[in-house]
C-alpha cells in the first residue's frame, strides 16, 4: 500500500490491487507457513479433568518478575507499538516487565502459573514457546495450567510486528522476542521457586468514574478486583489487580518505552503496602480507557506523561486500599480448551503470509480459507468465590454483561442473541475477564453491531446508518469470533456448574 500510495494511485485502485495481491499470496504461500491443530495444542495444558470441591490445607503462592527492556534502546532500532508505525523508541521512561504468580491449593492436583507481560500483545504461538521452555525445564512438577496475558500497553516495544517502519513491514526484533520468551519463562519458574504458604483474600473497588467507553453501548466493568496473598512467614505480600482500561495514556507522540499507567499503579501499591504487584487487563473492547482519554488523543497541549503518572498513582492508591475481607478457600479448579475461529480479515491473513504475524493458523493447501487456532480458559478460586474467564483478545464488555445494543440502536438492525453471556456461565460471588490471555486476536465484537466497509472490507473504517464509526472491526478476526468464543466458553464451564 505504501508503494501504491507513493505512485499516486486513487484509494480505490490501491485497495483493489492490495486485495488482489493478498489473494495471490494466500493461494501461493508455502504450506509450511501454517500450523496443524496438533502442533498448536501441544503445549496447552488442559487443566483439571474433573472439578473438585475439597479444599487444601492452605495456599502456596510464589511471585517473580524479570526486566524485559533491552539495554540498547536509542542505539538499536526498536519500534513502539500501539499507535503509529515507524515510531522508533528514543529512550526509556520505565521498564517493561514479565511478572508471574504461581498458585497451589495443596490438594495434590498441581499448581497454576499466571504471567503478565508489559506489551501490546503476544500470539498463542509465542506463548506456546514460553510454555515449552517452562515444561521442558522440568522444574515445576505437576503444573496443570500456564497462562500468559499481555497488559496491552501502547508504548512498549512491538511484539506483534504491526508497527514497523512501513506498511506491512515487520516491527519485531528477533533478539528481543527471544529474550522476552526466555525471561517470561524464567519468571514463571522463579515464581514456583519462591512459593510460600499463606492466605488469599479478595475485594473490589468502584473506579467507574475514572473510566470511559468511546463506543456505544456505554458499558464496562466499573469494579477493580484485587486478590491479595499474605504469606504466613510475614514476608512481602502479593497483589494481583484486574481492571478494564487501555494503557494508552502517553498518547500517539510518545518516543519512550513505557508500561504506561500500570507501572505507576504498581509503584504506588509497593510504596503503600511493601508488597509485590501484578496487573492483568480485563474486557477492554469498545474501547474502554481512562476518563480523560479524549484529552490524551485530541489536545496537543495536554501533558500526557504527567497525567499518565498521576492516573497510575491514583488507581494504585485505590488498589492498595481495597477492603479485601473475603477469604478465598485454598481451592483452584481450571480448564482450557482449543478453539478454531474463522479468519475473515484479509489484512490479518496477509500479515501472516508475509511473516509478520505469528498467530497459529491452519489452512487447506489449495484454499484461501483460514482458521485461527486459539484457546479459552476458565478458572475458579475458592468455593465459588472467584470466576476468571481467560479470553484471547480485546472482548467487548457486553459479551460479559449482556447489555447489548437493541435492534434499532446497532449497525445491523437485529438483537444480539447468544445462548449465554459470560456472567451467566458462573455462579461465583465475583467474576471477571482476563483479556489478551494466551493470544492476541484484536477486538471481539457482538455480531449485531459488526460492520465492515461495503467496498473496502477490513481495509478501511466505515460508518453505519446512525453515523457511528466502526474502527474496531478493521482490527478483528471477523464477525463470527464472538459467537464461537462464547460457545466454547459455555461448553468449557459446564462442568463447573
Number of helices: 11
The oligomeric state of the chains shown is single chain
**How would the global form be characterised?**
globular
Total domains: 1
Q: Tell me the distance between the termini.
A: 50 Å
Describe what you observe in this structure.
The chain is an alpha/beta fold and 497 residues long. It has one domain. The chain has 11 helices and 20 strands. It has helices at residues 2-6, 11-28, 37-41, 124-137, 174-193, 261-273, 293-298, 304-320, 346-353, 398-401, 481-493; strands at 59-67, 91-92, 97-104, 112-117, 145-150, 196-206, 211-213, 223-231, 238-243, 256-257, 276-281, 288-290, 326-328, 332-343, 361-363, 370-381, 386-390, 394-395, 430-434, 443-444. Helix 2 crosses helix 9 and helix 4 (124-137) crosses helix 5.
Key terms:
single chain; alpha/beta; 11 helices; five-stranded mixed beta sheet; disordered N terminus; globular; nine-stranded mixed beta sheet; 497 residues; 23% strand; 25% helix
How would you summarize this macromolecular structure in one to three sentences?
This protein has 497 residues and is of the alpha/beta class.
Fold blueprint:
Layout: H1 2-6, H2 11-28, H3 37-41, E1 59-67, E2 91-92, E3 97-104, E4 112-117, H4 124-137, E5 145-150, H5 174-193, E6 196-206, E7 211-213, E8 223-231, E9 238-243, E10 256-257, H6 261-273, E11 276-281, E12 288-290, H7 293-298, H8 304-320, E13 326-328, E14 332-343, H9 346-353, E15 361-363, E16 370-381, E17 386-390, E18 394-395, H10 398-401, E19 430-434, E20 443-444, H11 481-493
Parallel strand pairs: 2-10, 4-5, 9-11, 17-19, 18-20
Antiparallel strand pairs: 1-3, 1-6, 3-4, 6-8, 6-13, 7-12, 8-9, 14-16, 15-16, 16-17
Amino acid at each position: 500500500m505504501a508503494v501504491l500510495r507513493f505512485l499516486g494511485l486513487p484509494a480505490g485502485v490501491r485497495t483493489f490491487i492490495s486485495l488482489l495481491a493478498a489473494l495471490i499470496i494466500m493461494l501461493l504461500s508455502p504450506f509450511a507457513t501454517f500450523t496443524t491443530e496438533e502442533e498448536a495444542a501441544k503445549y496447552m495444558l488442559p487443566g483439571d479433568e474433573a472439578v473438585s470441591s475439597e479444599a487444601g490445607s492452605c495456599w502456596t503462592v510464589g511471585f517473580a518478575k524479570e526486566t524485559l527492556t533491552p539495554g540498547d534502546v536509542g542505539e538499536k532500532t526498536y519500534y513502539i507499538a500501539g499507535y503509529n508505525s515507524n515510531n522508533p523508541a528514543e529512550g526509556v521512561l520505565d521498564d517493561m516487565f514479565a511478572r508471574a504468580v504461581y498458585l497451589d491449593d495443596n490438594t495434590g492436583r498441581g499448581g497454576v502459573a499466571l504471567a503478565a507481560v508489559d506489551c501490546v500483545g503476544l500470539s498463542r504461538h509465542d506463548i506456546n514457546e514460553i510454555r515449552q521452555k517452562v515444561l521442558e525445564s522440568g522444574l515445576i512438577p505437576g503444573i496443570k495450567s500456564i497462562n500468559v496475558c499481555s497488559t496491552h500497553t501502547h508504548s512498549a516495544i512491538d511484539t506483534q510486528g504491526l508497527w514497523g517502519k512501513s506498511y506491512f513491514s515487520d516491527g519485531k526484533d528477533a533478539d528481543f522476542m527471544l529474550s522476552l520468551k526466555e525471561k517470561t519463562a524464567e519468571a514463571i519458574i522463579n515464581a514456583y521457586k519462591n512459593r510460600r504458604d499463606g492466605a488469599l483474600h479478595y475485594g473490589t473497588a468502584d473506579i467507574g468514574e475514572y473510566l470511559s467507553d468511546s463506543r456505544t453501548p456505554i458499558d464496562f466493568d466499573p469494579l477493580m478486583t484485587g486478590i491479595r496473598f499474605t504469606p504466613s512467614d510475614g514476608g512481602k505480600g502479593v497483589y494481583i489487580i484486574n481492571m478494564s482500561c487501555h494503557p494508552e495514556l502517553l498518547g500517539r507522540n510518545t518516543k519512550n518505552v513505557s508500561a504506561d499507567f500500570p507501572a505507576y499503579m504498581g509503584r504506588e501499591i509497593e510504596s503503600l503496602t511493601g508488597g509485590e504487584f501484578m496487573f492483568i487487563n480485563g474486557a477492554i473492547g469498545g474501547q474502554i480507557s481512562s476518563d480523560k482519554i479524549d484529552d490524551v488523543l485530541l489536545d496537543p497541549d495536554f501533558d500526557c506523561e504527567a497525567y499518565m503518572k498521576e492516573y497510575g498513582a491514583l488507581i494504585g492508591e485505590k488498589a492498595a486500599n481495597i477492603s479485601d475481607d473475603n477469604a478465598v478457600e485454598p481451592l483452584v479448579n481450571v480448564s482450557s480448551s482449543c478453539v478454531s475461529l474463522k479468519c475473515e480479515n484479509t489484512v490479518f491473513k496477509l500479515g501472516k503470509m508475509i511473516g509478520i504475524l505469528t498467530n497459529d493458523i491452519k489452512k487447506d493447501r489449495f484454499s484461501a480459507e483460514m482458521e485461527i487456532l486459539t484457546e479459552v480458559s476458565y478458572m475458579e478460586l475458592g468455593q465459588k468465590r472467584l470466576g476468571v474467564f481467560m479470553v484471547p483478545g480485546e472482548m467487548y464488555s457486553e459479551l460479559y454483561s449482556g447489555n447489548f445494543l437493541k435492534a434499532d440502536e446497532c449497525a445491523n438492525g437485529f438483537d444480539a442473541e447468544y445462548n449465554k453471556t459470560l456472567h451467566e456461565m458462573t455462579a461465583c460471588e465475583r467474576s471477571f475477564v482476563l483479556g489478551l490471555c494466551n493470544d492476541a486476536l484484536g477486538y471481539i465484537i457482538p455480531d449485531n453491531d459488526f460492520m465492515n466497509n461495503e467496498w473496502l472490507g477490513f481495509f478501511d473504517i466505515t460508518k453505519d446508518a446512525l453515523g457511528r464509526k466502526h474502527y474496531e472491526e478493521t482490527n478483528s478476526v471477523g464477525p463470527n469470533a464472538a459467537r464461537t468464543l462464547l460457545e466454547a466458553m459455555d461448553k468449557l464451564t459446564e462442568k463447573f456448574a
